Amino acid sequence: DSYLEHGGYEALKKALKEKPEDLRESVKESGLRGRGGAGFSCGVKWGLVDRKSGKPIYLICNCDESEPGTFKDRQLVHKDPHQLIEGMMISAFANDVKLAFIYIREEMPLGAKILEKAVEEARAKNVVGDDVLGSGYSCDIVVHRGAGAYICGEETGLIESLEGKRPYPRIKPPFFPAVLGLYQCPTIVNNVETLCNVVHIVNMGADEFAKIGRPGNTGTRIWCVSGMVQKPGYYEIEPMTMRELLYDICGGPLPGRKLKACIPGGGSMKILGTDETFKDRDGKEFSFDEIIVDYDGIMAAGSMSGSSGMMILDDSTDITEALANI
User: Fold this and answer.
1) Do 159 and 177 touch, CB atoms closer than 8 A?
2) Pick from 176, 156, 178: which is nearest to 167 by CA?
3) Considering the chain, what is the average pLDDT of its residues?
4) Lowest CB count within 10 Å: 205, 227, 252, 268, which one?
């Protein structure tokens, strides 16, 4: 009821009046990139789906969030589950999906309960299920709990698990999910935050969404900052410098300490030292403080933004010990 009071599901109402192909093109034009790890274009991923096979098309929300240092999707699920459901229903309609899944990590038991309740509430309001809002379009959502395997964050490992098998990644090719995914059918796998952004693309339009951020890095992004800063937390920001994020927003290092290194996008990403000097493609040097916190900015420094799980180490940290722990 609170979500509806604040404009919830208005984007879905708007989307149901559009052509699915127009919605797909709008998401592509918005420049939305996947918020789960690889940063692949959401619209391009949708465009790769085999729509001529005659098989059903499935949508899976990847809510495994197993990358160390990442906790933004858990917060979205716990505090705004209907935003995710609305994003999923718009995405499902845009891609002719009749059955969608939320694959949630076993270590999020409360999140699973919250989502199951939210899906029931959505069914009761006719925004999920048969003949959604009288549009003639039908789609259901199933919440599926994983068994706590890190590899299920990888989309084909997730699909194997959802089918009831050992979560072992499939060989690509031939198993590209857009052609051979769940039950050997065309499948779209999108991250929680990615699907939530679809709501705002529909509400504000692709052009307005694309104005947020910078080219190739459109929209806001939620960064999970943990470790040795005064104000750890999760922050939704437009691209900014590393210094602005860590000092202006996160309060800088703890008293008497000095920042030593940063793991920018989750445990599997390359560490960046605060005293390092980096070079962009043109050979121009820049410092750690000048790194732009977005996909391309962190890649220019030789690492990746990944799932945006930023872990900060200071001069009290033994780097060897930290890496051994990871």
Assistant:
1) yes
2) 156
3) 96
4) 205
Mean pLDDT of 252-262: 97
**pLDDT beyond 90 at 326:** no
- Separation CA 175–CA 154 (nearest Å): 13
Q: Quick one: tokens of 310?
A: 């930023």
76 pLDDT exceeds 90? yes
pLDDT of the residue at 17: 97
Q: What one-character-per-residue DSSP string does 205-252 give?
A: -HHHHHHSEETTEES-EEEEEEESSSS-EEEEE-S-BHHIIIIIIT--
User: What's the sign of the alpha-carbon dihedral 139, 143, 147, 148?
Assistant: positive
DSSP string, 272-296: EETT-EEE-TT--EEEGGG-BSSHH
User: Which residue in this structure is represented by tokens 């002719």?
Assistant: 96
Contact criterion met (CB below 8 Å) for 200 and 86: no
Identify residue 182 by its one-letter amino acid code: L
CA dihedral 92, 18, 82, 234 (to 10 degrees): 90
Q: Can you tell me the mean pLDDT for 290-305?
A: 96
Rounded to an integer, the average pLDDT of 229-239 is: 97
Residue 326 burial (CB count, 10 A): 13
Say whether pTM exceeds 0.70: yes
DSSP per residue, 84-126: HHHHHHHHHHHTTEEEEEEEE-TT-HHHHHHHHHHHHHHHHTT
Q: What is the CA radius of gyration of the chain?
A: 20
Nearest partner of 161 among 104, 91, 99, judged by Cα: 104
Q: Are residues 310 and 223 in contact, defined by beta-carbon separation less than 8 angstroms?
A: yes
Confidence of residue 5 (pLDDT cuts 50, 70, 90): very high
Burial 104-143 (b: 16+ CB within 10 A, else e): bbeebeebbebbbebbebbeebebbbeebeeeebebebeb
Q: What is the largest CA-CA distance in the chain?
A: 64
Mean pLDDT of 195-208: 98
Token pair of 118 as six digits = 């939210």
